[in-house]
Amino acid sequence: MITELPPELDPSSWLSLAHLASESDVRRALSASVPTEADFAALVSPAAEGLLEEMAQRAKRLTETHFGRTISLYAPLYLSDFCPGGCAYCGFAADRNQPRRCLNRDEMLCEFAALKAMGFEEVLLLTGERSPQADFPYLRDSVAAAASHFAAVTVEAFPMTLVEYRELAAAGCVGVTLYQETYDPVQYDVLHRWGPKRDFANRLEAPSRVLEAGIRTVGLGALLGISDPMLDTLALYRHARALRRKYWQSGITISFPRVCPQEGGYQPPFPVDERFLARIIFAFRICMPDVPLNMSTRENAGFRDGIAGVGISKMSIASRTTVGGYGEPTTSPDGQFQINDDRDIETFFAALRSKGLEPVFKNWDRVYNLDQ
Amino acid sequence: MKCCHLWVGGDLLMNIENSLILGGQKFESRLLVGTGKFSSVDVMLAAITASGAQLVTVALRRFNRERPSDDLLSPLIKLGITLMPNTSGARNAAEAVRAAMLGRELSGSRFVKVEIHPNPHHLMPDPLETYDACKQLAKEGFIVLPYMPADPVLAKRLEDVGCAAVMPLGSAIGSGHGLSTAEMVKLIIADSGIPVIVDAGIRAPSEAAAAMEMGCGAVLVNSAIAAAGDPAAMASAFAMAVKAGSAAWQAGLMAQSGHAVATSPLTSFLAGDQA
């Protein structure tokens, strides 16, 4: 078991500042033209709570500068909920007593058609950890199938080898999302009770392999609530920065999933409230102004509407987190996580437009993909 | 006089009809506009109309043939202006060339704005890949306008391979930092045989006017209009500024006096001096 992060990711030296920063540290961070890591630590610190409105104002200006008055849209598509993993917080963990399924080709096409009918042009294909039902060839073939229907296909599955990521790129995958969940190796070990995901280092190093393989974008995140959010946020910042420095021709995106109570009785030991979540998002926007920041439907409609364009630049909507959830909307409600914004597309679009934001389905083209 | 020399050089470039010529096509307006970042298609169309622009650029990745409500191409075609698809999203020459071909096929326009930024965050153009792509596309009969770093040597190299104009950046895309590359842009203009169009970074109409006063053939503006409080009104302000700057350049700016004239001339010792 690994007990320490590699030096380029280890945020320990900034932790005390993140906990103990003063309001003047935060003000200095807010006025920095090129914010440093110290500024980031100050902006996520409790002292920033009193300056949240100022942070929001700056975050909005930066979001508008870099992303315009638009919100890019994507849809998650769960291919399989088979999972040998033992993540204590997950609705798909192997010890959850629920029927499992894995989409066959016809069912997949049915899901594609339902998403296309709604207008989606970017789809995120999800599976659990590597399983006999949803193994690498299945995932690769699913990507290839989706790539002939959608402008952009991305994947959120399990850590893969460099060779596998290359194959995924060749199949038409333009992005891989892989949350470290927590950057605290000790807490990671506690929460990932069994299965392949126990390998902390393999997961931590996978984003480098993604970009090394030529996939354009890697999505990072920490599952807020399962561990010290200060440590996770600072390490996430370091992870994004290290990848940007090494893979300068690649894109990074960051998401901010918050864990919710699930069947199995899991209660997050370090709950992150809305104001803290907003502070983290604003801190990332201010310190990484040109990085797309994503938000799923884990958060409620009020929070999502408020933070759209004020930090967040990319969102999902009308999501189903169950396998087969789009083509057969009456199936089991037991998804991977609780959806807290269940509005339909038109209602969500009306909310965005009332804020002067244009929802954009297609912001990519297959012509740019490898090996056309 | 330096300004006189520039004026003459510029006159050749701008030609006697006071029109911008790109790829043999004449444009009365010297304001080019971009179509990204707007809060709605209607706001974008109103801004383009107010700008008087006759040449607009649109990202191929925002073409959506399957869903008209998400498509930027068809409403622009209806406007009846010249379209210049751009290759934003390409990170190398091969991708840009593929995108240009598809853009020409879908838009029916031979104009292409070559935009190759391998880093999707700061969006700085890759000079090497841009050069390769422009060389290929010019051979393929495109009217090529490359978005490029403000590098006078690269500008000449791009002219040599057949670009219709060069488009050096004023500052980073969307930054609103204005003409931070002004000195380099002046060097590009001084030697260029094709129009120089400042693209990216402009925030205020005064900066667009300043670019025109330097002798730019045109300016391309997107974020400054799309992110303005009233995009259509700002588009109209840019149109006026570009006209004013262009007229000022043609009128010939007076020479700038950099220092006081000495009361005791330093040349009085010269034979034949009349003092």
Topology diagram in text:
The complex is a heterodimer of chains A (372) and B (275).
Chain A: H1 12-20, H2 23-31, H3 37-44, H4 52-67, E1 70-78, H5 105-118, E2 122-126, H6 136-147, E3 152-156, H7 162-171, E4 173-177, H8 185-191, H9 200-212, E5 217-221, H10 229-246, E6 251-255, H11 274-287, E7 293-295, H12 301-307, E8 314-316, H13 345-354, E9 358-360
Parallel strand pairs in A: 1-2, 1-8, 1-9, 2-3, 3-4, 4-5, 5-6, 6-7, 7-8
Helix pairs in contact in A: 1-3, 2-3, 3-10, 3-11, 4-11, 6-7
Chain B: H1 2-14, E1 20-22, E2 25-27, E3 31-34, H2 41-51, E4 55-59, H3 73-79, E5 82-86, H4 93-107, E6 111-114, H5 127-139, E7 143-148, H6 152-160, E8 167-168, H7 182-191, E9 197-199, H8 205-214, E10 218-221, H9 223-226, H10 231-251
Parallel strand pairs in B: 3-4, 3-10, 4-5, 6-7, 7-8, 9-10
Antiparallel strand pairs in B: 1-2
Radius of gyration of chain A: 19 Å
| CATH class value of chain A | Alpha Beta
Strand fraction band of chain A? 5-15%
Class of secondary structure makeup of chain A = alpha/beta
Measured as a percent range, the helix fraction of chain B is 40-55%
Give a structural overview.
The complex is a heterodimer of chains A (372) and B (275). Chain A has 372 residues and is an alpha/beta fold. Chain A has one domain: TIM Barrel (Alpha-Beta Barrel). Chain A is 40% helix and 12% strand. Chain A contains 13 helices and 9 strands. Chain A has helices at 12-20, 23-31, 37-44, 52-67, 105-118, 136-147, 162-171, 185-191, 200-212, 229-246, 274-287, 301-307, 345-354, and strands at residues 70-78, 122-126, 152-156, 173-177, 217-221, 251-255, 293-295, 314-316, 358-360. Chain A has an 8-stranded parallel barrel, surrounded by 5 helices. In chain A, β3 (152-156), α7 (162-171) and β4 form a beta-alpha-beta unit. In chain A, α1 crosses α3 (37-44), α3 runs antiparallel to α11 and α4 packs across α11 (274-287). Chain A is globular. The relative contact order of chain A is 0.17. Chain B is 41% helix and 14% strand. Chain B has one domain (31-251): Aldolase class I (TIM Barrel), CATH 3.20.20.70. In chain B, α2 (41-51) packs parallel to α10 (231-251), α6 packs parallel to α7 and α8 packs parallel to α10. Chain B starts with a helix and ends in a 24-residue tail after the last helix. Chain B is globular, with a radius of gyration of 20 Å. Chain B is of the alpha/beta class. In chain B, the strands form 3 sheets. Chain B has a 5-stranded parallel β-sheet with strand order 5-4-3-10-9. In chain B, strands 6-7-8 form a 3-stranded parallel β-sheet. The chains are: A alpha/beta (372), B alpha/beta (275).
